[in-house]
């Protein structure tokens, strides 16, 4: 079995190579800023060094019929849980298996068709040995995210993604900080690359995120619109149009001509007509309406509907089909109640 190793190390003097200096500072802000700068430099090095090994990892994971089983010990395990959650929510079936628990029965959760993604900065994590042996025994592909190219895990992996050499952000250089940030970023990169390869869409995303504000923003207009609409023809007298507007509770009246939405009468149209003078009640709706009003399709995302309303300064929009026939009406309060805003 050939191991493809993605070597993410940079030569001395590279503009992307992280600094190894930890300047002494008495300011908490300076200490915090130095941490962020060190980790940002490491991420730049990581981005600049991606090559064919990353492609090999994506193709290996995408080609499996089962799940991506993510594993890691300690801080790597915490990062692994997040990577598994991100993959699962973006169309790549994934789960986290703790390597310690795996040695006591949870190896049974890893079956034919699965692939394993193992995280270990040292590449020598003893608790991963049974997981690696399981992969060998059942010919399960193993991808590793590690910090040492010559480690045992790197040699055993089908694809080893080796992180750049970079100092930990802790002043002692011991606490996993920079290394776990790079692990997380590389895990996100894998998840998004897999998402893109699968053609994962916003509709698919909605399937896995039905709750909360994110789920609300991914709702479609058709799920929120009212099908009982205030509609009338252009010849309707304004006295009757006012009654229809009041009964409709949306503060507007849609004007249809030959079944198509031709205009809309709103409170603003009434004020403009009164300001222009004349007997408003003696006129018909077609003379007062705004022609070609802003409308929206039923398959539009709720978040997009809110953006259009805010941009246009309106509180309600008619929903029309491909032939411009009204099929519903959407009020901004519907979006607010659904938690879109």
Model description:
This protein has 341 residues and is α/β, with parallel strands linked by helices. It folds into two domains: 4-200, Rossmann fold (3-Layer(aba) Sandwich); 221-338, CBS-domain (Roll). It has 15 helices and 13 strands. It has a six-stranded parallel β-sheet with strand order 1-6-5-4-2-3. A four-stranded mixed β-sheet has the order 7-8-9-10. Strands 11-12-13 form a three-stranded mixed β-sheet. A hairpin with a 5-residue loop joins strand 12 and strand 13. Helix 2 crosses helix 7 and helix 3 (75-89) runs parallel beside helix 7. The protein is elongated.
Main features:
four-stranded mixed sheet, six-stranded parallel sheet, Rossmann fold, single chain, 2 domains, 341 residues, alpha/beta, CBS-domain, 15 helices
